[in-house]
């Protein structure tokens, strides 16, 4: 099956961030990530890439955070840099030593090469014995900014730690 502009096999390694931090009003958390994946386009060979990132989240309230992530994309694709900014609703059942958290929210990607596009992201993270493991999806709505363009999906696998300012 041929798919256009689909990012697949994306692995995100998060060290830090909201995975273990006790988010409360006025708290800033950080994360460092590394993503890899490939772009499949009809009639063209797959292009793989590596996308490291550094993110900061400001927690307005216990269940709402504004996240900004600086990233670079390298590999078989054109080198590009950018910022993802998003507003995340988040929840936690249990606590960060044993529980489940989730996030969902809209955002916007600003990138040096390609289209600046809105996105929607969401995911679930399991926390147990000092380890955080989860999965998520980020959908880029290319069709909003370019007529006839297909939307792209990033599939995330999350492994995390924690940090708070």
Layout of SSEs?
Blueprint: E1 6-13, E2 15-16, E3 27-40, E4 47-61, E5 64-75, E6 80-95, E7 98-111, E8 117-128, E9 131-140, H1 142-145, E10 152-160
Parallel strand pairs: 1-10
Antiparallel strand pairs: 1-3, 2-3, 3-4, 4-5, 5-6, 6-7, 7-8, 8-9, 9-10
Please provide a written account of the structure:
With 165 residues, the protein is mainly beta. It has one domain. The protein has one helix and ten strands. It has a nine-stranded mixed beta barrel. The N and C termini lie far apart (46 Å). The N terminus is likely disordered.
Quick overview:
This protein is mostly beta strands and 165 residues long.
What is the gyration radius calculated from CA atoms? 16 Å
Number of helices: 1
Count of distinct strands: 10
Helix content: under 10%
- Could you say which structural class the secondary elements and strand pairing correspond to? mainly beta
Measured between the Cα atoms of the first and last residue, the distance is 46 Å
- How many domains? The number is 1
Anisotropy-based shape: globular
Describe the strand arrangement of the main beta sheet, using strand numbers.
1-3-4-5-6-7-8-9-10
Q: Can you write the helix and strand succession as a string?
A: EEEEEEEEEHE
User: What proportion strand?
Assistant: over 45%
